[in-house]
Structure to design on (523 residues):
């Protein structure tokens, strides 16, 4: 005979499945809420986004001590050591070029453009390693729409601060300073493309590109330019710092592509920081379903 | 002194310490052995706390292989400069440390980095010039390590030094390997290249002078 026993767990005690599935965001939301109550804490109130990946993020230590930010030195430990001296307040970003009206934004202005979202994105470095990073930011499109791009705005050029006094790496000419990057206008307007101002629910650390940086998750990390001071909409394709440095190695597009090797190393696999075995690199860093259509009919070997 | 005074007379039995001398390594060699292992200990400790331990260990062992190689190559110029000929006693160990660190470097790549993905490794060796030259340097080090013993020196006679001239090729390949893997900042590999240029330049200069001095004076 089957004896039915009532379950000891009350239905009210069971975590709803939706909350369970979003437990990381739930935890993060809790932390940010807690942080906001403390006055001195620089917590950002960011809402979770459906565009976040479900993978677990790398630790804050990993994300903030292993950085390529040549303005502070070419060793990956340099930015954490030297970026502290960068003055991120006050800060101005000039948005101009082929626009209805140019505008200059302070960080506070930017925060009013759109509600902050947490975007947990994969980041694939051109060197063959990757991380998962919980950024906080706003869609770049929300800023670009405010300045009314003209019909001639085919590309967007970005520029980092140029100040060797604050950025000791700029005293040696490892790259052409200021650091420059660029996107096609449709890439810049894509919902995945964000201007990030935070990390792990708090203000972006300097070594990660404070006060504001670009994040384009389907492209190699160097496209996601840091400490941006200039955004220019223009008709011609901009030249980027890495293109100037080695045009045969770093193309304008630099979409993550396991089938197009860097001339000096393979891009087929990557080491996720914290993992032992390498994993396969995915086309467009796994964002193919959202972005591949932008490149339809393009020879991605030619436009690497 | 005693032996010199007794020269020509019946031999005085050697003290135990003197007899053991042939078997026991000199304290300086033991010190060198320990010193040579310190970089490995350091690399292991630092790798454990590194964000990317495999990358750190690969780079570190590669760096120390190059350092040991340049130290090996500096023995001859130092002897010639200082006249301290016993420095030669330390060259073999430095050469073997070069092989030791190069072996660790190569095994880290094979095992920890590529995890024996032979097709990826093969492609790397064929298609990526910096890996091609690094691999060539490692392969060329093997015969030098194998023939580093006194027995092989005897067996190979004059060919031994001919064979071991490969070390110059290996050093150039090693430095090129480093130069080619760097993304933009060539400072550190350029320092290694400069040191190697001095060490090789010294030899070329000596060879050149030697020939000039031997050449008949034609007025």
């Amino acid at each position: 005979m089957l004896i039915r026993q009532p379950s000891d767990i009350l239905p009210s005690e069971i975590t709803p499945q939706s909350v369970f599935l979003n437990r990381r965001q739930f935890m993060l939301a809790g932390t940010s809420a807690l942080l906001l109550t403390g006055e001195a804490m620089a917590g950002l109130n960011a809402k979770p986004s459906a565009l976040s990946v479900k993978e677990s993020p790398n630790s804050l230590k990993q994300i903030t001590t292993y950085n390529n930010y040549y303005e502070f030195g070419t060793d990956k430990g340099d930015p954490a050591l030297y970026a502290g001296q960068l003055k991120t307040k006050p800060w101005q970003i000039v948005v101009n070029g082929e626009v209805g009206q140019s505008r200059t934004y302070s960080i506070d202005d930017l925060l009013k453009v759109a509600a902050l979202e947490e975007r947990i994105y994969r980041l694939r470095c051109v060197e063959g390693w990757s991380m998962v990073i919980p950024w906080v930011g706003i869609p770049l499109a929300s800023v670009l729409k405010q300045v009314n791009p003209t019909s001639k705005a085919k590309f967007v050029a970005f520029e980092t601060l140029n100040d060797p006094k604050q950025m000791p790496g700029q005293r040696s000419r490892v790259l052409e300073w200021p650091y420059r990057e660029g996107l096609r206008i449709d890439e810049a307007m894509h919902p995945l493309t964000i201007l990030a101002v935070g990390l792990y629910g708090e203000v972006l650390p300097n070594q990660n590109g404070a006060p504001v940086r670009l994040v384009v998750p389907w492209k190699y990390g160097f496209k996601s330019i840091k400490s941006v001071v200039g955004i220019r909409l223009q008709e011609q394709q901009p030249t980027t710092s890495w293109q100037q440095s080695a045009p045969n190695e770093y193309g304008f597009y630099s979409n993550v592509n396991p089938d197009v090797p860097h001339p000096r190393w393979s891009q087929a696999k990557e080491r996720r920081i914290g993992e032992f075995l390498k994993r396969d690199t995915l086309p467009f860093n796994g964002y193919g379903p959202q972005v591949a259509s932008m490149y339809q009919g393009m020879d991605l070997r030619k436009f690497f | 002194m005693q032996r010199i005074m007794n020269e020509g007379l019946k031999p005085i039995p050697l003290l135990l310490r003197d007899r053991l001398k042939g078997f026991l390594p000199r304290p300086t060699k033991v010190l060198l052995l320990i010193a040579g292992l310190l970089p490995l200990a350091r690399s292991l400790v630092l790798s454990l706390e590194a964000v990317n331990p495999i990358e750190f260990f690969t780079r570190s062992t590669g760096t120390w292989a190059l350092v040991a190689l340049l130290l090996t190559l500096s023995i001859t110029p130092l002897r010639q400069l200082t006249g301290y000929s016993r420095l030669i006693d330390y060259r073999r160990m430095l050469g073997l440390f070069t092989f030791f660190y190069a072996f660790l470097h190569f095994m880290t790549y094979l095992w920890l980095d590529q995890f024996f993905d032979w097709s990826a490794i093969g492609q790397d060796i064929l298609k990526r010039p910096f890996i091609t030259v690094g691999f060539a340097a490692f392969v060329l080090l093997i015969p030098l390590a194998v023939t580093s013993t006194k027995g092989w020196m005897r067996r190979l006679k004059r060919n031994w030094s001919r064979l071991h001239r490969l070390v110059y090729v290996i050093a150039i390949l090693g430095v090129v390997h480093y130069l080619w893997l760097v993304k933009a900042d060539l400072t550190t590999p350029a320092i290694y290249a400069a040191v190697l240029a001095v060490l090789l330049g010294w030899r070329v200069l000596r060879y050149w002078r030697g020939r000039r001095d031997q050449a008949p004076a034609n007025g």
About this structure: Chain A has one domain: 48-291.
